[in-house]
Specification:
The chain has about 325 residues and is an all-beta fold. About 0% of the residues lie in helices and about 45% in strands. The chain has one helix and 22 strands. The protein is globular and about 55 Å long.
């Protein structure tokens, strides 16, 4: 990513990548600050490269300001592509259902006839007049990173706050589509504008006040059993905090939020996982760190059932 939050934001492999070779990228075109979604395919000559000649434009979100572009792509268990977008400017457009900014979008990115993608018919606004049918959820400021729990299908979103609060939003897999997370009427748990509470409003499950927090880095549900007691928890960070945090998220809310000890990530700017569910963090120092579970050493022996997590610099 370059200055003004331009450049590549996210890439994701299609569920059938082994056979199709499809990869999707989300990026920002400067100086118009247009968020774009494209498809590329694996090179026939080198399986470790994408073939730029196969690039296909899928979705143009439209021009925004210099910052707050969102920037996460994830395929859900339903095989659909989910895409986060942010807002900037005043007033923001997060509550405007005719605008794609400040939303989670959901599409089938494969072409259908002359259409570059299709809207799933079970999207909450698929057939609503005057509303963008791609919208899955609204009312977000800068959902820089979100993820799905691969076991339950639940979704968690780290939404970077504006003036006072950072927040984590959560959707149980059985929650009806069309959630509205409240920005810019709400920030964190707090109503900051006199406007009516949005329809389908879903409050956050967790907030952190600015100073010492400044920009939440939405994380992942831990499904790497080598990380011991962290298994099943949601792991996330903040740009201004060198310790990652873990919390239990479920339909009842958030509980047990705490800093994960034993290691430091110098300015975490993103978290990710591989196809074996191992977790990584990208840091402001240019490093990529992998989280590793190691046995706790006792005076006389190792006790394999007890493990601690460390961050090993991956590259």
């Amino acid at each position: 990513m370059t200055g003004a939050q331009r450049g590549l934001l996210s890439m994701v492999f299609a569920p059938d990548y082994a056979s199709s070779g499809r990869v999707y990228i989300q990026y920002v075109i400067g100086p118009s600050d247009t968020v774009q979604l494209d498809e590329l395919r694996r090179s026939a000559d080198d399986p470790n490269r994408l073939d730029p000649s196969t690039r296909r434009h899928v979705l143009n979100v439209g021009a925004a300001g210099d910052y707050h572009h969102g920037g996460q792509l994830q395929f859900g268990r339903d095989g659909m592509l989910y895409m986060s977008t942010g807002v900037s400017g005043d007033p923001p457009s997060a509550q405007d259902l005719g605008d794609l900014h400040g939303k989670i979008l959901r599409i089938d990115p494969r072409p259908s006839g002359a259409k570059p993608y299709t809207v799933p018919p079970d999207n909450p606004y698929a057939f609503a007049a005057g509303v963008r049918p791609e919208i899955w959820a609204a009312g977000l400021r800068n959902p820089w990173r979100f993820s799905f729990d691969p076991v339950t299908g639940d979704m968690a979103i780290g939404d970077v706050g504006q003036d006072t609060y950072e927040e984590v939003d959560y959707l149980h897999h059985a929650e009806p589509a069309g959630a509205n997370f409240g920005f810019d009427v709400y920030e964190g748990f707090h109503k900051v504008r006199p406007d009516p509470t949005p329809e389908r409003y879903v409050p956050p499950v967790l907030e952190h006040k600015h100073n010492p927090y400044c920009a939440v880095m939405g994380g992942y549900f831990v499904r790497d059993r080598s990380l011991g007691s962290l298994y099943g928890k949601y792991l996330y960070g903040d740009l201004c905090r060198s310790k990652l945090r873990a919390v239990t998220l479920n339909a009842a809310g958030a509980s047990g939020d705490h800093a994960v000890g034993g290691f430091f990530i110098p300015g975490p700017i993103s978290l990710s996982e591989d196809n074996q569910r191992r977790l990584y963090s990208v840091a402001n120092d240019g490093g990529i760190y992998r989280l590793v579970g190691v046995p706790v050493k006792h005076r006389k022996a190792y006790r394999p059932s007890r493990r601690r997590t460390v961050a090993s610099r991956y590259r």
